[in-house]
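Listing S7. Sequence submitted for prediction.
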Amino acid sequence: MNKSITQANQNDKQISKSIKRFFIRFHISSALKASNAYKKKGIPVVEVFQYLFLLIFSNRSMYMSLITGRNTPGFAKDTVYRFMKMIQINWIRFTTLLASRIIKDAILPLDSKERTNVLIIDDSMFERNRSKKVELLAKAYDHANHRYRFGFRMLTLGWSDGSTFLPVNSVLLSSENKKNRVMKRQMLTNGPSDTNEECFPCKKEHRRCLNS
């Protein structure tokens, strides 16, 4: 029992060190700030984001983390909830910036100049069949099963060199036909939404991030 706990603690420490190295190497703090994810006072955003990374890679929820006392953060859980509700954060820009840094710093140096780099766009079904009150929920046609389902079209942009595939960003698209929409757009905030009728980032934004 004690050996198992000790091994788990060692694994958590190793994961934490790996995440910190990743954050430093790819300048996660500056990418967050460039995506409008910052606070004027209090706990730095990058610390909260790093804690969320730790939860994901240690396969643990924040609830279990607080209950077991493992990987307990130096801030209250409400700080995490407030961060996740920050509507001004441009997550599409963040993932695009992060992908461009990983490509330039970690992948391209290992590739030969003869390799062809491409951008791939994939359109898939994101089902929400049990949902009823999701903003812009619509009946979307599933081309794989040839039937309409409740959900969204998930449009994903990825980068590949023929050997490696790296997601750049993605958005959920509602139906252009208002008759197919189950729920209307909720104008509760004036912040950017990850779910939009036509909201796939413009090509200029992608080129600017990938070339920066």
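Caption to Listing S7: primary sequence and predicted structure tokens for the chain studied. Strands lie at 118-127, 138-142, 147-160, 165-173, 195-196. The helical segments are 2-25, 28-34, 45-57, 62-68, 77-84, 91-107, 203-211.
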